[in-house]
Amino acid sequence: LDGGTGIGDDCAVVRIPKGHEALITTDLSLEDVHFRRVWHTAESAGHRCLVRGLSDIAAMGGKPRAAFLSLALPRGLPQSWADRFLRGFLKLSSQFKVSLAGGDTAESPSGVIADVVVFGSVPKGKAVLRSGARPGDSIYVTGELGGSAATLNLLSSRRKKIRPDDFPQHFRPMPRIEVGRLLRENGVASAMIDVSDGLSTDLAHLCEDSGVGAEIQIKAIPVAAIGKSARAVDLRFALHGGEDYELLFTAPRGKTVPSRIAGVRVTQIGRLIRGRKMFLLQGDLARQELLPQGWEHFRS
Ligand SMILES: [Mg+2]
Q: What is the pLDDT of residues 59-112, one digit of tens each?
């Protein structure tokens, strides 16, 4: 652990740079709610449990430093499953130089339960919040949307197994740590959130916290393409599907926002308006209200 101690003592000692403050995020992942052993490899489950927290740190413009993993495993679960789960978790954490600094294990009465805490830091007072946006600001999103949810839809509707390697958006989504850091350092983003619950829901969170409304141009939404055939997913997955872990941010009009940041595509999809409502626009032709369709609701 960078400047601290790893597993072994009674507590983890985590040092943060002078002038920084701590960012802490926690996510509970449950078997059959957040992943399924028949659909997800153990490595993918481990990866996906950790990406949720890393993405939250990215959305604040912070740097993740340490992770804590508490695992409850049902009796009879093969040890190899647990080993591969940890391998997926550690492969992702080491990519971002995040150390596994502690955790706990227990026997679960039913199903795998993974509780992940990610600890990070950001220069004092510089965290990018959801509340800093103003009417007139432009709305941007990184990467492409809908790939993860569309893959989940395939998994639930098909008997045939699909190859995880062909669907990285769902099985190995990457947190946009570098993009978040650069947006903060360069003072570009007025507000930011990660797209974990779906564009309509996460945009609604940002609008609510900033006290603004939004207009989104349907044609501007970067819709993901999935699988070997790289087929574009249905728009509803891009609008309402969760677990893409892209960043949704706003920037004052007139700020220059590059079309790629840290190698990741950045797309302007609309602008913030006065009021509290969100609208979908089809050029100048049509305007319909966009209601947040929660990922949980959408998934059921
Ligand atoms: Mg989040």
A: 999 999 999 999 999 999 999 999 999 999 999 999 999 999 999 999 999 999
Report the separation in Å between the CA atom of 76 and the middle of ligand 1, taken as the mean of its atom positions: 34
Ligand 1 centroid–CA 207 distance in Å is 14
Tokens of 197: 């619950």
* Ligand 1 center–CA 194 separation, angstroms: 5
288 CA → ligand 1 middle, Å: 26
Q: How many Å lie between the centroid of ligand 1 and the Cα of residue 255?
A: 24
Structure tokens at 87: 């391998």
Query: Separation of 230 CA from ligand 1 center, angstroms?
Result: 27
Return the ∠ at Cα 242 (arms to 292 and 233), rounded to 5°: 100
pLDDT per residue as tens digits for the range 285-295: 889 999 998 65
Distance 59 CA to ligand 1 centre (A): 7
User: How far is ligand 1, taken at its centre, from the CA of residue 217, in Å?
Assistant: 23
